[in-house]
Amino acid sequence: MIVTSAVRQAAAGTAALLFVLPVPAATASPVTPVSHGAASVEEPTPPVRRFVDPARLDRKGVQVQGAPGAPAVPSVSALSWVVADASSGDVLAARNAHRKLPPASTLKALFALTALPHHKPSEQHTVADSELTGIGAGSSLVGVKEGYTYKVSDLWNGVFLSSGNDAVHVLAAMNGGWDSMARQMQEKARALGAEDTHVVSPDGYDAPGQVSSAYDLAVFGRAGLQDPAFARYCSTRYADFPAGSWSYGIANTNRLLTGENGVTRYPGLLGIKNGYTSNAGNTLISAARRGDRTLVVSVMNPQAGGGFAVYEEARALLDWGFEASGQVQPVGTLAPARAKATAESEARAVAVARDDHGVRAAGPAPRAGAEPMSVVSPRKTSGESEEPGPSAWLPLALVGSACGAALALWGWRRWAGQRA
User: Which of 17, 42, 93, 308 gives 20 to 30 Å between its CA and that of 255?
Assistant: First the structure.
């Protein structure tokens, strides 16, 4: 069989040629063997993702997902609390995260997030009498006086250090008025994904219907750390407050930051905001940095231990969060609502991919504020296209040419034999 022999020779030559041809970079992709019964097929490795139940934080009680050997979550008396990673937004543990409770002056964190960008720190403002009306009885005050001129930075020191409701009233007047400020804060909360918060009084003073949650307070604290001005004010321990021709010193009422009144200062504390009313009890948003890790902790209304228990419970939760680093899986995220919706759809896709390919969902989740990660089809990896390119057709063209040459050679030999 001359034809068969010629074809085999041509095919062998073609195989040798293909062996030395360089493979274009676009066709190279890392693959791992995937076993399907007795046969082993080379397929791209599907993306490995971490599955987070988006409804976990809606459940009552303590929510945590620790690996074997992870430290136990401390037992604290607060009605609601959250421990979260400030960089990724991962919620490491929580108790009654979405329980709606009065926030007291921790609501001033949302007030600052809303109003801070509107005026430069060096801007000066002379206080009118109307701007100091309507301050609730028993409010904490920094000592703002009618007719006095203050820099905006002085007023913000009054808000963060002394929790001054008088300073809040003046700044609210500078930003559209009391009712307008409440509406602006409500819009800001929703934009941040804080859906438990209802703003009635921008200073956090008890008002019917005014609520927030430990989850929302953690959202506000994390967002505040991303604003340099907010971060500077909330970490200031002492400042001078002007009073006409002289000034007096004011101290931050966050005892974890100053270490006063018998509360030991927490190492690496970045501050944020504390609060108290008779209705809300003690509330606190704290943030601390240790090495390259920053945590945000919110605590609402401890039920035991006295007025400073909120600081000791926050301390215990911060210690746990740093100790448990790398040993717990997140139980939620502080990402905005639209990012959470994307995470839910991705979680469903991950579950499908896991069932189809036998891959257990694990690994890093999208960082809050980052572009959502997408699940890559196992049949399509980076560098591949839906239609075959020139590199895909090259082997077929070479084999076709070899077969044509073999047939031509066979025809010529037959003709030559007949003539002989």
Answer: 93
Q: Which residue has the higher pLDDT, 254 or 349?
A: 254
Instruction: For the chain, give the longest Cα–Cα distance.
Output: 126
Which residue among the candidates 88, 108, 213, 298 is catalytic per the annotation? Answer: 108
Task: Give the per-residue pLDDT at 324.
Answer: 95
CA 365/CA 84 separation, integer angstroms: 14
Catalytic residue among 80, 88, 162, 163: 163
- The DSSP secondary structure of 344-386, one letter per residue, reads HHHHHHHHHHHHHHTPPP-SPPPPTTSPPP-PPPTT--TT--S
Catalytic residue flag (residue 80)? no
382 is annotated as an active-site residue: no
- CB distance 308 to 261 below 8 Å: yes
For 158-167, 321-330, 390-399, which range has the lowest pLDDT when averaged over its residues? 390-399
CA distance 195 to 369: 17
Strands 31-36 and 39-44: antiparallel
- Domains of the chain, first to last: 2-29+398-419 (no CATH), 56-330 (3.40.710.10)
Rounded-to-integer distance, Cα 140 and Cα 164, Å:
5
**Residue 130 appears among annotated catalytic residues:** no
Q: Please, what is the average pLDDT of the chain? A: 79
Per-residue pLDDT at 153: 98
